[in-house]
Amino acid sequence: MYAFDYQRASDAQGAVKTLSGDADAKYLGGGQSLLAAMKLRLAQPSTLVDVTRIPDLKALFVDGRVVKVGAAVCHADVAENAEVQNALPALAQLAAGIGDRQVRALGTLGGSLANNDPAADYPAAVLALNATVVTDRRRIAADDFFRGMYETALEPDELIVAVEFPVPERAAYEKFKNPASHFALTGVFVAKAADGKVRVAVTGAAPSVFRAQALEQALAANFTPAAARAVTLAADDLNTDLHASAAYRAHLIPVLAARAVTKATG
Ligand SMILES: Cc1cc2nc3c(=O)[nH]c(=O)nc-3n(C[C@H](O)[C@H](O)[C@H](O)COP(=O)(O)OP(=O)(O)OC[C@H]3O[C@@H](n4cnc5c(N)ncnc54)[C@H](O)[C@@H]3O)c2cc1C
Fold this sequence. Notes:
Layout: E1 5-8, H1 12-20, E2 26-28, H2 34-39, E3 47-50, E4 60-63, E5 66-70, H3 75-80, H4 82-87, H5 89-96, H6 101-106, H7 109-115, H8 122-128, E6 132-135, E7 139-141, H9 142-145, E8 146-148, E9 151-152, E10 160-166, E11 170-177, E12 184-192, E13 198-203, E14 210-211, H10 213-221, H11 225-229, H12 246-265
Parallel strand pairs: 1-3, 2-3
Antiparallel strand pairs: 4-5, 5-10, 6-7, 6-10, 8-9, 11-12, 12-13, 13-14
The structure holds flavin-adenine dinucleotide (FAD).
Flavin-adenine dinucleotide (FAD) is lined by residues 26-34, 51, 71, 98-99, 103, 107-108, 110-112, 114-115, 120-122, 159-160, 181-183.
């Protein structure tokens, strides 16, 4: 590690002011990705602005058909929240499957989304549920938020305040996890809205989370595991790494989608 300043923000306005005045400053969530990047010298911020004590970013509640999760809410709090478990169990279950106990106690929704790791779980929920990312200055639709590997639509000093997840008619998430980190080797989130529209988001398989349109069409016509399993996906744009080939991931996606449909309809 090297020397840097640490500030604890008490409100969103103050946090944004610090970052807008210093191009080398960064927000600090749970530090589960940023501190590791700093240790590897992949990031060398001048100042860390801790946003985890800002009350607006700690809010977590269900408002009618919307689950609103503050950016600084840790994964364990989403997993264990009775209102979330009741309104949107797929989201609570996804949060419960992130990393290990320590990662879930520290890692935050905002940090996960701003980081946009190709294998992170939350981006799949945000995209499949057609959620809205609320920042200090605007509302960003899920389809516009994820731009590529570790890239998002956020401006350098833009602060995620919360995410609004509409409650679907049915939803479930299935991941084939890396046994060491629990990151998604491939993960598939399936959501069916009350109007019959289906959104399927895939994480872990490509440089960034993406929607699988072939699966969406097949499941909109017939929301069954068999319909998902019958879909064949090309491996062309998928990742090959030491954990799995692109062809293996292409095979996994319909398999996981079918399991998610089984869970969502069970
Ligand atoms: C061992 C291990 C296992 C893990 N396994 C999984 C897993 O299975 N699935 C998974 O999805 N994730 C996994 N993670 C990642 C973890 O879930 C964290 O959520 C993630 O690292 C980032 O969240 P954080 O709060 O720690 O963010 P930080 O590391 O503090 O920050 C990450 C980035 O987000 C920015 N940031 C933070 N908060 C905000 C905000 N409110 N607005 C704008 N920018 C912000 C920071 O400036 C930084 O650039 C794992 C991590 C570890 C260390």
